[in-house]
Amino acid sequence: MRTRRFGRTELQVSELVFGGGWVGGILIHQSDEVKVKAVRHALDGGINFIDTAASYGDGQSEAALGWILKEVDQSPYLATKFRLDLGDSDDIKGQIEASVEASLKRLQRDSVDLLQLHNRIGPEADGDVLSIEQVLGEGGVADVLDELRAAGATRFTGITGLGQPGSVREVIDSGRFDSAQIYYNLLNPSAGQAMPERWSGHNLGQVIESCRNNDVAVMNIRVLASGVLATDERHGREIQIVPDAALPLESRRAQAVFEKLGDRFGTRAQTALRYSLANQDLSCIVIGMAELDHLEQALAAAEKGPMSKAGLDDLAALHAANFGLI
Fold first, then answer.
1. In the structure, what pLDDT confidence band is assigned to residue 234 with cuts at 50, 70 and 90?
2. Which of 159, 83, 140, 151 lies closest to 112 in space, CA to CA?
3. pLDDT tens for residues 38-51?
4. Distance (Å, rounded) from C-alpha 295 to C-alpha 292?
5. N or C: which end of the chain has fewer CB within 10 A?
6. How far apart are CA 52 and CA 167, in angstroms?
7. CA distance linking residue 28 with residue 166, whole number of Å
8. φ and ψ at 80, to 5 degrees?
C-alpha cells in the first residue's frame, strides 16, 4: 500500500482509508466476527487510517471501533466527525464538546487524530447548513476546535467540503483547518477540474484548488457514488449527498462509463478507485464496504495503481459528451 502526504500535517497516510459509514456499513450491519476480520485485514493490507462519525449508525460505528481496535496489534490513525443541530440550540461550543465527549467514550480513547465538522457550509445558516460566520467567527466551530486541540482531544481538525462551493473555499482559504472531505468520483470530478460545457451535474467548484493552495489534505469521499459505480444491485442504504445525483440518473451515467471502459481496469469498483488514484491532489480515498470481498477489491485496486492516461482520456470524452445522455 502506497502512502501520501496528508497536507501540512506531514502525516504519511495510506492511499486508502477504511470508511466506517452507513452506506457500506460493514462496521454497523455485519457480525462482530466480520467486523474484526475486516479491520484486521485492512491493517494487514497496509491501510493505516480509519474514518468514522458520531452519526454513523447513531454511534454504532464508533462503538464497534472502540472494542475492535483493542483486538488488533496495530494503531491506525483515527478520524471522527460531529454534526451540529442549530435548530435545537445555537450553543455551538456546548454541542461540539458534548458530541466529542460521547464519541471518545464510544471509541474508548482520550483523543483522535482528526476531528471534523460534518455539516455543510454556506453563506447563510439554513437548516443543516452552517454559515461562514458560524464556522470562522468568534466562538465558532474553528475556535472551539482550536480549544479541543489545545486540550489534547485531537491532533488535527477538518471540515466536510459540501455546501456552497464559494463558501467552502472561503473556509479552506482561512487556514483554520488541516483537512477537507471532498466529493469526487468519475461521474462528477468537478471538485478537481473545470468541466466541459455539455457535462451536467452538481458543480463542486474546483474546491480542491483551494486545498492545494493552502496545503489542506484532501480526503476523497463518495468515490463509488453511493455504490452506483460498484454495482447495479441496491441495498436501500444509498444516500445521495449532492444535487443532480438521483439514483436512476447516476445509474445511466455509470452504464455509459462501463460500456466505454469495460473491464480494462478491473471490476467496476476498482475502476472507480483507480480513477481517483490518478489524481495526485487527493491525499487519500475513503472507501466504504459492505462485505469482506469489497475490501479485497479495494486492496487489489490500490496494488494495480492509477488508471492509465488512455482510460482518463476516454472518461474526459464521456464528460464532454455528457455520457451520451440527452
1. low
2. 151
3. 999 999 999 999 99
4. 5
5. C
6. 24
7. 34
8. -140, 175
CA separation for the pair 321, 326 (Å, rounded): 9
**The one-letter amino acid at 189:** P
Q: Which residue has the higher pLDDT, 76 or 90?
A: 76
Residue pair 8/37 in contact (Cβ under 8 Å)? The answer is no
The total of other beta-carbon atoms located within 10 Å of residue 156's CB is 22
| % the chain with pLDDT above 90 | 89
Cell of residue 95, nine digits = 454541542
C-alpha cell at 97: 464538546
Mean pLDDT across the chain, nearest whole number?
A: 95
CA-CA distance, 93 to 30, in Å (whole number)?
A: 35
The candidate with the shortest Cα–Cα distance to 253, out of 304, 204, 289, 202, is 202
Question: Residue 242 gets which letter from DSSP?
Answer: S
Cβ contact 180:217 at 8 Å: yes
> Is pLDDT of 277 > 70?
yes
Number of Cβ within 10 Å of residue 273's Cβ equals 33
CA 216/CA 209 separation, integer angstroms:
10
- pLDDT for 310 equals 98
Quote the cell numbers at residue 238.
444509498
For residue 214, give the C-alpha cell. 493552502
Output the pLDDT for position 211. Answer: 98
